[in-house]
Specification:
By secondary structure, this protein is an alpha/beta fold. The protein folds into two domains: about 240 residues, Aspartate Aminotransferase, domain 2 (3-Layer(aba) Sandwich), CATH 3.40.640.10; about 130 residues, Aspartate Aminotransferase, domain 1, CATH 3.90.1150. About 35% of the residues lie in helices and about 15% in strands. Strands 1-7-6-5-4-2-3 form a seven-stranded mixed β-sheet, sandwiched between helices. It has a five-stranded mixed β-sheet with strand order 8-9-12-11-10, with helices on one face. Helix 4 links the parallel strand 2 and strand 3. Helix 2 runs parallel beside helix 9 and helix 3 runs parallel beside helix 4. The protein starts with 6 loop residues before the first helix and ends with a helix. The structure holds pyridoxal-5'-phosphate (PLP).
């Protein structure tokens, strides 16, 4: 094929070829730790599965393809992928990061890497002008999450790419919430795109997986070195499951987004709901940026009910029947969560509330069930 493949085709064929051994259409699960060599050094490109494994290679090629990048690298989890990025840095280096951040990323930055001499500044990335004042000679990385978790703020990726032009600062984007279907940060000029493939890419709540995609050859070499040296690699079975998930990403995301739009509108019109956070509303402060850099508005949303405290939020969550109360997101089934006591419990309360993560905030990961059933479930729970 001469013309570059388009997105839906890439999810199915990108980097994928029938297996050379027997023509298996799906990459086999190469459940092996090592590979026979005909003579010392005489191998077929695979020596030891921490370094390379054919099932993982297939997933890494698929990841690179759907993110329009040159190189993919997969990790045992999303956090292991983030860990590898921060290991590019040295003590004394500084990072600017979103203040509305996935709780696990915050914990890794503040509780592990701060102690090793890397400094993190948690700032409001929705205001690039104010962030520009914080750049200094030691800044080596800007860590962007967009849309953010759980406040659904949208960060203008291109604004940061422009800001660091000519400077030795990497732009990394955690693309977990949008998924590759909605947003391709490398096309916007980012250096690194990161995924918790545990979420939309895997899509079926049955695997933990992380990924990085880059265009730069040297950056790829450094990250591949860290991947092998630190060893947080995924197994072949999990690589297989993620590959299988990616094949249906487009059809799932279409339904996810349709359902979320209906639920967002239902909640916004509900007399007991005070606020709904979803970038698809024209009133959302970064709606224009979302329209510019995303294909659709995603299926994550948060809302605050009127006069709801910790206890009442818990009661609403207990009453939900179709929405499962659980951490995580991005699977085919709808989930509801309580950020203050679940995903964001590791963030100090004062810092949490400053960002709007109040006790009454409920976050929904809208699945691909019938939206009428999901709305009926919310209706009975909100009472
Ligand atoms: C889940 C998640 C992570 C961490 O990924 P794991 O696969 O759980 O390690 C990082 N960032 C975001 C936005 C996430 O939702």
């Amino acid at each position: 094929m001469k013309k570059p493949m388009q997105f839906n085709t890439k999810t199915i064929h990108g980097g994928q070829e029938p297996d050379p051994a027997y023509g298996a259409v799906m990459p086999p699960i190469y459940q092996t730790s090592t590979y026979a060599q005909a003579e010392p050094g005489g191998h077929k490109g695979y020596e030891y599965s921490r370094t390379h494994n054919p099932t993982r290679t297939a997933l890494e090629k698929s990841m690179a393809s759907i993110e329009n990048g040159e190189y993919g690298l997969c990790f045992a989890s999303g956090l292991a992928a983030i860990d590898a990025v921060i290991k590019l840095l040295q003590p004394g280096d500084e990072v600017l990061s979103s203040n509305d951040l996935y709780g696990g990323s915050y914990r890794l930055f503040a509780k592990i890497f701060e102690g090793m001499g890397i400094r993190f500044h948690f700032v409001d990335l929705t205001d690039p002008q104010r962030v520009a004042e914080k750049l200094n000679d030691k800044t080596k990385l800007i860590w962007i999450e967009t849309p953010t978790n759980p406040m659904m703020q949208v960060v203008d990726i291109e604004a940061y790419v422009a800001m660091v032009k000519g400077k030795n600062i990497l732009i990394a984007v955690d693309n977990t919430f949008a998924s590759s279907y909605l947003q391709q940060p490398l096309d916007l000029g980012a250096d690194i795109v990161m995924h918790s493939a545990t979420k939309y890419l895997g899509g079926h709540s049955d695997v933990i997986m992380g990924a990085l995609v880059v265009n730069d050859e040297e950056l790829h070499e450094q990250l591949a070195f860290i991947q092998n040296a630190s060893g947080a690699v995924p197994g072949p079975m999990d690589s297989f499951l993620t590959l299988r998930g990616i094949k249906t990403l487009s059809v799932r995301m279409q339904r996810h987004c349709e359902n979320a739009a209906q639920i967002a509108q239902y909640l916004a019109a509900h007399p007991k709901v005070e606020r709904v956070y979803w970038p698809g509303f024209e009133s959302h402060p970064q709606h224009a940026t979302a329209k510019k850099q995303m294909r659709d508005f995603g299926a994550m949303l948060s809302f605050v009910s009127k006069d709801v405290d910790f206890e009442r939020a818990k009661e609403i969550l207990r009453k939900l029947e179709l929405f499962t109360l659980a951490e995580s997101l991005g699977g085919v089934e709808s989930l509801a969560g309580h950020p203050a006591s679940m995903t964001h419990a590791s963030i100090p309360k004062a810092m949490r509330e400053e960002q709007g993560v109040v006790d009454g905030l409920i976050r929904l990961s809208v699945g691909i069930e019938d939206s009428t059933d999901l709305i009926a479930d919310l209706e009975q729970a909100l009472g």
